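Hi support team,

I submitted a single chain yesterday and got back a structure, but I'm not sure I'm reading the token output correctly. Could someone confirm the output below corresponds to the sequence I sent? I've pasted both exactly as they appear in my results page.

Thanks,
R.
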Amino acid sequence: MHRRIVIVVLLLIAQSICAQSRTDADYAADEATLRSQNLPTKGEQLLEILKKRIPSETVIAGFKKNAARLGKGVYSERMNAQRDLLAMGPVVRVLIETARRDTPSDAETDGRLRQVLEQFPAERDYASATAAARLIARDKPAGSLPILFDFVVYATNETVRQNIQHAINVVGISENKPAPLVIEMLTSKNPSQRAAAGETLVRKFGPSAKEQIGHLLKDTHPQVRYQVGLGLTEKLDKTGLPILIQSLADLPADRMDVALETLFLVAGENAPSANHPGPTKVQAFVADWQKWYDKYHAKLDLAKQYAREELGFTVLGVTALKANTKNKIYEVGKDKVVRWEFDGPRYPLDVQILGPNRLLVAEYFDRRVTERDFKGNVLWQANANMPIACQRLSNGNTFIATRQSLVIVDRDGRDVFSWQSPGASIMAAFHKRNGEIAVATSGGRCQLLDPQGRELKSFMLGGAIYSLGGQIEVLPNGRVLVPLYNNQAVVEFDWEGKRHWQINVPTPVSATRLSNGNTLVTCSLSYRIVEFDPMGREVWSLQTEGRPFRARRR
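Hi R., thanks for writing in. Yes, this is the structure output for that exact sequence:
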């Protein structure tokens, strides 16, 4: 069973911060983050961190005036408007992010807004707001709730929003009753506040909360539909699914990713085959999901779908580089006993499990990608010039990465998408549910491409991926899991380049996040597969005879 279908624990961690159980070490790390920025770490002083990031009415009015000038008048006037926005300081970040999220502008205005954003890096703001929110949930200082509700309006980053939401969930319920402000916010004019209040009630009271949030079930804003629909679904209420489906049409990318992960999880093998087509054709995509719901919801058992577990078997491909060894693809259990194996191709750089008796293999030196059964019989193949990665997509097409190109082929082997690297060699690539593609290059750069191959964002990795068989993986929380071979570490990055999690391990070549939250790492040069828990502790390992390139868990 493919990892994406059984991602229960990790999905809940990524989507529902309120379900996390934080340790003293976690809080110590949050305090260290704040101290590094000379910010307070306890009690009511934490609220000042958020208050300073909530723009006043005067600041908002000034922003709107200057933003309106960006695309009008003579060139000098537009430059002056951009200069005035820069002079507003870091608080302008949330206003620009909110404006770009809620009010699309012309190309010149948007370009100038992005130039202003570049002068105020998001990393520090996101880190401090996230740490403050978690510590507020711990300390519950008096007066927290109004500030949290004011700040959530400007929590454009999904990780920040989830942590603010968790704090609202904690301080907004007392003695099993919602605070009056939570009830008041259910009818707020601001959709982020309505959504936060509705999610708080759903997270605490489950489906019974629908008596109080009935009007939100038909809310016209996608943010409200997303949060309420997601909350109900995770509380095993199927009425949340059509609400969540309807939110897909207008959500920003990071929230769409979370919504799609939930939908694919609960749909399982019956999920619609189409990838997200982008905003111009999204209504057809939404309609496909609605058809799925109409057909299957009566017999759908959410508890069963969320409870599906991995079998605990590890599938890997190895290449013979030692005497008396051979190329092979095989599977072992937790007891390290081989369950099945077959003679493999030379350099099987990627292996994807497709089902109980199917897998996809990138055969580097044989210049092809094959679909095989567990006896090694070739069931399908597509020619490719030294493939380094492969993925079977939900619509039946196959994504293939080579050193110079990314392609998607249909079942007849015909190209339906092609992207050529303009310069540096491709070291690793990953195709997301929504059609976006993450690419890491030999120059140490990680890019996010839209479904048409245009760059959306990028950052520098600060290290190198192994030149043969390296891998990156985009997680359900939108971050990128990267094995930095020369840095002796596996790192979880956000798209600003911030490191959110790291383990030190010798010469990692590939890494994949498991459904239990652990990370499975392939150390090719030391002939070893290692599983680490979230704290970086080794919980399982396997020594191999041949050199391993990729390991998958099913």
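A quick pointer for reading it: The two ends are 5 Å apart (CA to CA). Let us know if anything else looks off.

Best,
Support desk
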